[in-house]
Design a protein that fits this description.
Keywords: Activator, DNA-binding, Transcription, Transcription regulation. This protein is of the alpha+beta class. It has ten helices and ten strands. The protein is globular and about 55 Å long. Beta-D-fucopyranose binds near residues 13, 29, 41, 51 and 100.
Amino acid sequence: MELNPQDMVSYSPLMKSFTFNAYLVAGYTPISRASQLDFYINRPGGMKGYILHLTLRGEGRIKAGNRYITSRINDLFLFPPDVAHYYGRAETSEHWDHLWIYFDPRPYWLDWLRWDRLEDHIGITHLHAPALSEIIQSCFWEVIQQNASNELLSEALAMNALERLIISCFKLQPLSNHQSLDPRISTLCHYITEHIVEDLNIEHLAKQVFLSPSRLAHLFKDQMQETIFAWREKQRVNRARNLLQSTHLTIGQVSQAVGYEDALYFSRIFRHHVGVSPRQYKKRYEHMISI
Ligand code: FCB
């Protein structure tokens, strides 16, 4: 996808206000020595979702545990949730331009987000072939542009482009199959999303995968870095976002459709994750839903 530099700058995160509560935010950060964006990002606790980076020009310096790693042109870096972010332009380089996507993965993406080369939890992949680098770059731009658009279903299209991007990256991982998610956990994630409206307790869930409730709770936390119910809550909110974006359902109906009997409680949870109430969120999309 060809973009002129003027268009590219409009995707710079400092040019508009971003919220990172959403399940997908993407941008382009062009850093030049002494420019407005020339500072180190420092997020000691990391972020709630994943971040994927691609370097387009110059070099970035990224802290991984106790050491620093250079991100060069065509390097991809994948930061999982809660892993510290400390990075900026490498002092020896005039620029560090990079594309990035912040996202909350769909459950079945999790296996594809396990990369072979890890430096202190941060995944690293280099795009050797120019053709491949072009494909990956154009997926990035597609995600960024769909994400910035206000058109109906643009968020779904952004997720779709991101899914292709993640699959393409996963195909580059020669050993990936060796470290896939525990199959009981992925089975359970599917089960939960299929039964999102039901109020299933841990005993019931544990039975589905032939584990004891406490063993399941441990295994889930170990594999997913959060509790089952925290994870389910996120899935419910994401489903609600989809419904609010693209249907005429009332807030009460959406609340029921994602498993919350009490619409007020649902609104509180929704606001906690998304940053605005379901009503405000729905308003943003109202003019786009055709009758
Ligand atoms: C931007 C950074 C980018 C990424 C996103 C989340 O400000 O430039 O590298 O960290 O925030």
